[in-house]
Design a protein that fits this description.
Sig_transdc_resp-reg_receiver; alpha/beta; 43% helix; 5 helices; CheY-like_superfamily; single chain
Length: 126
């Protein structure tokens, strides 16, 4: 059975790219905002990994990921943050929760796939 990845991003071009790159190997659920993603999670869905944009309207990626990480249930779900913001490394280091991975947009799809594979194999061993 394919691993399930929740993708949260408001950029159609990024969603199309992620779908093209990942859909063959993973079961993807795509949401356009943190609000939609939280609603989906509250319906009892349990992704193996989350990929989220940092900058989104209404409920940004930082708030969305913080909510995941403080929840008892999704605390250990690996998260990869994608963003086009300047100083992404600095912003990630200032976050008050642990983030498993982050990539600057535009990103290399091969690098992303490698990161996903590594994180999913680590989570299987725990």
């Amino acid at each position: 059975m394919k691993k399930r990845i929740l993708i949260v991003d408001d950029e159609i071009s990024i969603l199309k790219l992620l779908n093209f790159v990942l859909s063959k190997d993973y079961d993807l659920t795509i949401k356009n905002s943190g609000v939609e993603a939280i609603d989906w999670l509250e319906q009892g869905n349990d992704p193996d990994l989350v990929i989220s944009d940092l900058q989104m309207p209404y409920f940004d990626g930082s708030s969305f990921v913080r909510n995941l990480k403080i929840s008892g249930y999704y605390r250990d779900t690996p998260v990869i943050l994608l963003s086009g913001v300047d100083n992404l490394e600095e912003k990630v280091n200032k976050m008050q929760f642990r983030l498993e991975g982050h990539l600057q947009k535009p990103f290399n799809p091969t690098t992303l796939k490698t990161m996903i594979g590594t994180l999913l194999s680590k989570s299987e061993k725990q």
